Amino acid sequence: MTLIPFDDRDGFIWINGQMVPWREAKTHILCHGLHYSSSVFEGERSYNSKIFKSAEHTARLRASCNFLDFDLPMSDEEMEKIKYEVLDANGIIDGYLRPFCWRGSEMMAISAQDTTINVGVAAWNWPSYFDPETKMKGITLDIADWRRPSPESAPVQAKAAGLYMICTLAKHSAERKGFQDALMLDYRGYVAEATGANIFFVMNDGKIHTPTADCFLNGITRRTVIDLARKIGWEVQERHIHLHELENVKEAFLTGTAAEITPISKIGTFTFQPDLACRSLVEAYSDETNPKS
User: What's the pLDDT score for residue 130?
Assistant: First the structure.
C-alpha cells in the first residue's frame, strides 16, 4: 500500500484565521507544542455533510486547552463555523476532521505563559464504511506493557498529544507481534482502554460492562454507545474490571470516532465471538450517524 504523506496533499487547511493551501500550512520547528507536547486536538467525523456531535467536540477541545493552562482563542460558535468552512473548501461530505491547538515559538522552555496559541482545522475524505460481515469478524488485541497514568500524574481527561506517546509505543509492539491493536491497563492494573478507543464487554451475565473512565478519556462515542445500548434494551454497567474477568466475556468491542464500533475477536489469549450485541450496536450506531430522512 502506498502511503500519501499528510504534508503533500491537495486541499486547504484553516490555520490562525486563514484558509491556507494544504502544502503551505506550516509552523516553525522551534515550537513549544512540538518540543513540550503543549498541544491538544479533536477527532471528528462528518456523515452526509453533518459533523457528528460537533458541539460536544468543540466543548471538549476547549476543556482540553484549559487542562493545559491556555484557552481556545475563539468562541464555540466561531469554531463550529470554521469546521464547516473547511469541509466546504475541501468538498468533503463523509470525512474526518482534526481541529487542533498548540503553543507557539515565543518561549522555548518549560514555562510558556507568553506563547501564542495557534489553531488549525484540517479535514480529509473518510467515507462511512459499514460492511457488517467483515466488521463482525473482529480484530485482535495484544495486552500492552504500558499503562494509563493516574489523574495525579497527567491531565487524563484532556485529549492532549503527549498522552498518546505510550499508545503509539503499545500499538507498535502489538503490530510487531501480529495483533492489530493493544489493550492497556491503568496504573492500578484495571482494564482501561485500547490505544485510541474505549472498550466494552458483554459478560456471561448478559450485561454490557465498560471500565470506569476515571483515568482515561470518557469518549464522546463511548457515551453515545452507552445511551444507544440502553435504548435498545441492554443493561450497561460502568465499573473497574480486572483482567482475569475476560474469561467470562462473550463479546467485546471498541468505540471511538475512527473505530466507530469495532468488534474484537481476541485479547491476548482470551477469545470472543462477535454476536448479537456487536451486530445490534453497529446497526444502531449506523442509524444514529446516518439518520434516515
Answer: 43
